[in-house]
Amino acid sequence: MSTAVEDGFVGVRFREETNLTLCASQGTIYAQGDSVIVDVDGHGPTFGRVERSPMPVFKPCQKSGARPILRLADDQDRTAFERQIANELAARRYCQERAKNLNLDIKISRVDFSLDAHHGIFYFTSEGRVDFRQLVRDLAQRFSVRVKMVQVGARDEAALVGGIGVCGRTLCCSTWLKDFRPISIGMAKRQSLSLNPSKISGQCGRLLCCLAYENDQYDDPKKRPRSPVIADYE
Hints:
By secondary structure, the protein is α+β, with helices and mostly antiparallel strands.
């Protein structure tokens, strides 16, 4: 695999994310530590910090997916970002309390506001379908944003929230793992692992995704070909 380091790309970290996002500098030189405003699909202008300059490009297709840097962040952007974080915390508390008052059986996982405070995405989990129309109206009126409610599953919630796994490392789903493979208890049995739920369950309460990592390296007795029986006659 060829690796090229090009001045036109830098690695930007958003919030407390573990992974760096490849961003196109568009002819401007950005140094490590610079605060920048990046155009991120679905979120609009987003505040981030350059953590690697230049950034290695491993595949040509990565260039097309690089997010464009709009400009260096100024004092107004920093103030807007601080206000954004405060509003997200307040919105999460308010949304959970308001949902309880409306007898909605939901759990608010995370709230993302845009830097310009025009849009707000509320991620939630629920066992079934929820009529949240009144909740949306209350949120829009309280925070003056266009509200979008997004229902996520247990694994997606863990990826959004993040945390430390039983292995002591940052959750795979919140760093590099993007596709969830089907996981079965048979994988744990095949690897001779403890079947204690606390040992093989992740933060999401589901079976550990890492059970699938080495599963193919273990023989399945049911699929193992039978050895031919050779009779020894004298």
